[in-house]
Amino acid sequence: MTHLAATAWPLTRLADAFEALIRSAALARTMKPGPPGPCPTVEDDDEVDCWVQAAARSVDLEAEAVEIPVCDVEAFLRQAGPALFVLRENTYPGVLALVRGGRRWVHLVGPDARVRRVKRDEVSDILRRTLEAPLMAEVDDLLERAGVAPTRRSATRTALLREQLASRSIAGCWLIRLPPGAHFGDQCRHAGVTQMLAVFAAAHVVHDLLWVLAWWLIGRAALEGRYDRGWLLAWALLLLTLVPLRMLATWAQGVLTVVTSSLLRRRLLTGALKMEPDSLRHLGVGSLLGRVIESETLESLAQSGAFLGLVAVLELVMATLILGMAPGGLVYVCLRGWR
User: Fold this and answer.
1) Could you give the C-alpha distances from 233 to 227, 237, 243, in angstroms and in order?
2) pTM of the model
3) Chain centroid offset of residue 41 CA
4) Per residue in 150-173, is it b (16+ CB within 10 Å) or e — as a string?
5) Are residues 30 and 171 both part of a single domain?
6) Helix and strand tally (H, E) in the chain?
7) Which of 148, 187, 211, 226 has the fewest CB atoms within 10 Å around its CB?
8) Among candidates 207, 209, 218, 203, which has minimal Cα distance to 242?
9) Do 93 and 139 lie in a common domain?
10) pLDDT in tens, 139-189
């Protein structure tokens, strides 16, 4: 656990861990002189929660205290980040600043401001240790009296502890994120919309290029009057390659739709909750329902129109490039553009 030890902050440096986390995650555009107030005593959960909330508000961020079910620690670490973990376990106290999660590795920022990769299982074991430590002696005694073989004790101990702690939750975690009213571009960037949009565009461009190449091969063979088996095999392989590319583009489009919908709905819900009650007194149920329906219609039209517009631009660029490569194609493209 050398990598995990190098990324753990002392409990007294909670303020430094918070500042390094938001810098590494590029959450705050401008940093203020420092978090509000002195660093709290980590033994008091309420005091730590109030301090983290105030520190997040001081840089226009949002901190949400969460409790992680023991059975869902791995799933949480795969998708969480940025997040702060306060560990009060006697043998391994400290603060973990999680920049982003992953399936096998998570990225933590350490006291030296370096972001390191740590195995996800190591972090999950540390988070569970606070709850597992009081039961460890009892479980070991049970395994000894049951005569479990030494080679199987580790797996058996883990299974028994997970079963006994299935209904328990791990506290001391705060998710640090942009508030719903933040700039929508920043929200999309931190939600991974930019990367997924690049995946969608690249898959669509490669799909169309391979489609053109496939029909160029079969057209060339037909015009030259030769039907070689190798050309037909290449044509069939290119057509088969289009299937995973189309699946990738469809998957990316689905992810983009879900993520952007959640961001928009969260933004609308926050705005609705901040409305003054006096401004709604003269409105009836039908008027409010009409606004909800209109917002959903606008959301669906915006998303479908955005994808159609992006696809149209990509296809226009590719068509222009392909026509420009043909003899006299540059003149034709210029005339069409002038027209």
Assistant:
1) 11, 6, 16
2) 0.69
3) 31
4) eeeeeeebeebbeeebeeeebebb
5) yes
6) 11, 6
7) 226
8) 207
9) yes
10) 777 777 777 777 776 777 777 777 777 777 788 888 888 887 777 777 777
